[in-house]
């Protein structure tokens, strides 16, 4: 049984963006967390929480409010649950001159205005509103 078995999939840029927005809304994650471009496909397996999004090419986005640059590979995947993405693949954050792969993103339960990015070296908190759509 593969990770994508039983998945709901969406093809194309418009449907892919709508898929990502609705998935993040459903699980209480900021809509601007994944500023996608030219989406080819998106998919979600409801029974496991596994999701993936494929873009035409790797992209970078600067979150001005916190001065962080994020890199999004052609394929992004992970497992989503309420206010959390775990086993994240395809997303890196740049701190000083080094790119760190992110493995988990969590909106704090007790402080929903805080979102934490977990990388190999540390977990770093940021204000959730830095990842609002259009930022």
TrEMBL record:
<dbReference type="InterPro" id="IPR007493">
    <property type="entry name" value="DUF538"/>
</dbReference>
<dbReference type="InterPro" id="IPR036758">
    <property type="entry name" value="At5g01610-like"/>
</dbReference>
<dbReference type="Pfam" id="PF04398">
    <property type="entry name" value="DUF538"/>
</dbReference>
<protein>
    <submittedName>
        <fullName>Uncharacterized protein</fullName>
    </submittedName>
</protein>
